[in-house]
Amino acid sequence: MLTEIDFLDVVRLTPLVAFDLIVSDTRGRVLIGRRRNRPARGTWFVPGGRIHKDETLDAAFARIADAELGIANLARSTARFEGVFEHHYSDNFAGEPDVSTHYIVLAYALTLAGTAPLGRPEQHSEYAWLAPEELLARADVHDNTKAYFR
C-alpha cells in the first residue's frame, strides 16, 4: 500500500488507470453520484475507481463494483466495454498545488434489474438516476461523465 506522499508522486509523474461503471436501470436511467473527493469534487460522476498495481483487471472490476455499488463478485464479462477514455484534472486528491491528475479510463456499461445497494459513502454524498438527456443538460454533471453519452 502506498503512503499518501508516495501516491502523490505517482499522480505527479504518471497517468492512473481506472474503471468507470456506466450503470443503467431497466428504464434507461444512469446512476451518478456527487463526488466528495478531489479531483472533480462536488460534481456528479458515474461510479468508478482506479486499478491497483498487480491487480488483475477482473479482480479490480469486482472490487470496484463491490465498493462503489455494493454488488459483490460482479464479473467484468457481464458488462459491455465502451472504450478507453482520458480524464484530465487540474487538481489532485491531496489538493497539492501544481499537481494535475491524468486517468486512462476503461469504461464499462451494465444494466441492473433493480437498484444497486450502493457503497462507499465516503466517495459520494448523494446518488441520482438520470436519463442520459437529463444528465447532458445539467451543468453540475462533469464533462467526463457526459462524454459517455455524446
Q: What sort of overall outline do the alpha carbons produce when their principal axes are compared?
A: globular
Terminal residue distance: 37 Å
Order of helices and strands: HEEEEHEEEHH
Question: What does the largest sheet look like?
Answer: 4 strands, mixed
Strand order of the largest sheet: 4-1-6-5
CATH topology: Nucleoside Triphosphate Pyrophosphohydrolase
CATH C-level label: Alpha Beta
Low-pLDDT segments? none
* CATH homologous superfamily identity: Nucleoside Triphosphate Pyrophosphohydrolase
Proportion of strand residues: 25-35%
CATH architecture: Alpha-Beta Complex
Number of strands: 7
Total of domains: 1
Structural class: alpha+beta
GO molecular function: GDP-L-fucose synthase activity; GDP-mannose mannosyl hydrolase activity; metal ion binding
EC number: 1.1.1.271
Pfam families: NUDIX
Motif (Nudix box): 49-70
Question: What descriptive keywords fit this protein?
Answer:
Nucleoside Triphosphate Pyrophosphohydrolase, alpha+beta, GDP-mannose mannosyl hydrolase activity, globular, magnesium, GDP-mannose mannosyl hydrolase, four-stranded mixed beta sheet, three-stranded antiparallel beta sheet, 150 residues
